[in-house]
# Entry
Amino acid sequence: MDKIFVVTHKAPNNHLIDGWEYISVGSNYFNDELNDRSGNSIYERNSEYSELTALYWIWKNFTSNPDNFIGIMHYRRFLTGESLINTLLKSKVNAVKIIDHLENYDIIAPIKNRVYPNAYVHYTSEHIGSDLDLAISIAESNDSVPPGHYKELILNIKSAHLFNIFITKKSILDSYSNWLFRILFEVETKLDLTTRDAYQRRVFGFLSERLFNLWLITNPHLKVKSLPLYFDGYSRFKNWNRNRLCKRDEKNYL
# Structure
């Protein structure tokens, strides 16, 4: 079954198109039918993992044909079509377009954001740099690559797919999730989060945004299609202008 999961921690007010469904996460869940609490779950760690508790649940519990597409969006951010009219009408990308894109691409992700001056420094300027160093080191060890190799790759990232939003086949989602959570769970065993504020406790969601781009680089056979991202709460013009700038940066800062 094809499905787009829209992650939310509060009762939503947006209408969803066919094939899209809300999955509630965290302590204030509202959806008894679809939430991150059932089955194999890490829902109790939502304050540290953010939307990744939904990704983990999808990976471990949602049964689907390996070739079916699965997507993860946010309640206030979603992928839209490429034309201006899609942005103006707040049009969510539909199943027909998704299937069409996945005929030629393996993953659909948001247009890249400029990360200045690179993904490593961008992270350390907003979060705790030693967390990223630890995650990189663990990823290098897991993947049996020379120390420093993955850090060099991240230092060379000038624009990145952010927000932990993407659409892909279930088999690819499973492969990525297996790689990602193996890293994050080991990082978790080595961190003390008790003295951090609520924002910096969300470390694993922040790390995964950078690790997703590293994973794409280290899997060059995977072709990525970039689509505009619509922010609910932004004006139509602000969304159009943001996507225009991101498209420019994605072209100039590969």
Observations:
- The two ends are 34 Å apart (CA to CA).
- Residues 170-189 form the longest helix (20 residues).
- The longest strand covers residues 3-8.
